[in-house]
Write a structure and sequence with these properties.
Number of domains: 4
CATH architecture of the largest domain: 3-Layer(aba) Sandwich
Helix content: 25-40%
Shape: elongated
Mean pLDDT: 92
Structural class: alpha/beta
């Protein structure tokens, strides 16, 4: 009888680089798995946004240097599955298209490990689509060939270049060939392909920092060398390239080509990630802080004892809303009992989080800071004998509580979450310095503190060319306390305010 105690391995294609191009099935499985085993070309955003409980195993390679040899990767998958784990084996592009998914599936079958293949968007179709180059077109090509420029197991190419060079009305797409481009082009010419055949190199396809360089078969190697083209790059040869200028759509957005590092907690960053990508930026997901629930038993007990007609609930962050509502419902069972409270709130993220629960604030200060909130509440409201629940995180100070108490209110602080510095996954620093950011965005002082915790002084110095972006004066103060210079500060202290200032700055530099 087959052993059914094993876990399952999911061989998942993550797509070509843009995190939005992973399939729905692939994303679902990432949320459900126990372990993710991932390669170098996986978008960082897919890894940093995994639930905290998910174990991460980096097994990637860079320039043919493996973090873990393939045999050891195979053994790792078997070992994890035999331990009862649900394993997501996350591979760049598609697992079976010039990957080694078939080898891994074979080993799993040999060990009677259940597995599922989740196809991915392969680099050829994605990068060419983003470059405006169709693989086929009835006017230009009715045949497309995907080949590898990488040498096979016998240290010789397994591709019949003689046959490839003579194929008519075709498009040739070469994976993993940028280091061999000069030899590949020479082989194709030697076997009869016309020297003036259009050729292109697509570097970092589907990323907003994508580059598309064009030329002819006899010049494309020189073009690539002069422009310092690096992997991952795709080579395209054929007359479909003539259509590029008519079809190209990806470039031209306000932030196209700019690399922006976001230090905000990954589980709160959807809006800023998506907004920046829609504007053409490449988003670098480097959360320097994270949050988790904190159960404040004494605070909740004190809140349960409150009564009277003048009760207020103060919400000042997205985290505060999310963790408070979750714990409130667990404790009291019915969110409708909050109707006894008026709500005072500040912040774009707070408002968005409240909207998810169909809550609206009764009081919003003119300026969105905690100090202004407490000051304006004291000035404009009758707080004598009021009962105020101050929802907060572990890093908040007591300024608001002190001001409200001095005005005659009974203030009950309830700490519902704590902020901590996450450990970045393996290889994240390596990627950061290989493709450094042009901008680093801080949306809180604690996110600046978190960067200093993750990087030493020498590593921070390697980012000195990046422009530092701050959400507002209090965050700027913390950033500058660490010796970093703020180049851009949002006028409106919110995520939309940060994005607006970024676009304004980039436009001013053109």
């Amino acid at each position: 009888m087959e052993d059914t105690s094993h876990g399952t391995v999911y061989l998942i294609g993550a797509g070509p680089g843009n995190p939005d191009l992973i399939t729905v099935r692939g994303r679902q499985l990432l949320e459900q798995c126990d372990v993710v085993v991932y390669d170098n070309l996986i978008p960082d955003e897919l890894i940093v946004r995994l639930p905290e409980r998910v174990e991460r195993r980096y097994v990637g390679k860079l320039a043919s240097v493996h973090s873990l040899p393939q045999d050891e990767i195979n053994n790792l998958l078997v070992t994890l599955a035999k331990g009862g784990k649900r394993v997501a084996r996350l591979k760049g592009g598609d697992p079976f298209t010039f990957g080694r998914g078939a080898e891994e599936a074979t080993v799993l079958r040999q060990h009677k490990i259940p597995y599922e293949i989740v196809p991915g968007v392969t680099a050829a179709s994605a990068a060419m689509a983003y470059a405006g180059i169709p693989p086929t077109d009835r006017r230009k090509a009715s045949l497309v060939m995907y080949v590898t420029g990488h040498k096979g197991t016998q240290c010789e190419s397994m591709v019949d270049w003689n046959w490839v060079a003579k194929a008519q009305f075709s498009t040739l797409v070469i994976y993993m060939g940028v280091g061999e481009l000069e030899h590949l082009a020479a082989d194709l010419v030697a076997h009869g392909m016309a020297v003036d055949t259009p050729a292109a190199v697509i570097e970092r396809g589907t990323f907003p920092t994508q580059r598309v360089l064009t030329g002819r078969l006899d010049t494309i190697a020189t073009v690539a060398k002069e422009n310092n083209v690096r992997p991952p790059s795709l080579i395209v040869i054929g007359h479909v390239i003539d259509l590029k200028d008519e079809i190209e759509w990806f470039a031209g957005r306000p932030l196209f080509g700019h690399r922006i590092m976001i230090t905000r907690p990954a589980d709160q960053a959807d809006v800023v990630y998506n907004t920046l990508r829609d504007l053409g930026a490449e988003v670098l997901s480097y959360p320097t802080i994270a949050t988790r629930a904190h159960i404040d038993k004494s605070g909740w007990q004190a809140m349960a004892g409150l009564g009277g007609d003048n009760r207020w609930l103060i919400l000042t962050s997205e985290n505060g809303v999310r963790y408070f509502i979750d714990q409130y419902v667990q404790r009291f069972g019915d969110i409708r009992t909050l109707s006894a409270y008026k709500i005072a709130a500040i912040g774009f993220g707070t408002a968005r989080a409240m909207d998810e629960y169909h809550l609206k604030p009764d009081f919003v200060p003119e300026k969105a800071t905690v100090n202004n909130l407490s000051r304006e509440m004291v000035e404009k409201l009758d707080l004598d004998n009021a009962q105020v629940v101050r929802v907060r995180g572990n890093l908040a100070d007591s300024t608001a509580e002190d001001a409200l108490s001095a005005a005659g209110a009974k203030v009950v602080p309830v700490t519902v979450y704590e902020t901590y510095t996450p450990t970045w996954p393996d290889n994240l620093k390596e990627k950061l310095f290989r493709f450094p950011p042009e901008f680093i965005v801080f949306t809180s002082g604690s996110s600046a503190d978190g960067l200093v915790s993750n990087l030493n002084a020498e590593e921070i110095a390697r980012l000195r060319d990046a422009k530092v972006v701050s959400i507002g004066p209090s965050t700027t103060k913390v950033i500058e306390s660490h010796g970093m210079k703020v180049s851009i500060e949002a006028t409106t202290h919110s995520i939309p305010g940060v994005v607006e200032k970024l676009v304004e700055y980039v436009n001013s530099q053109r």
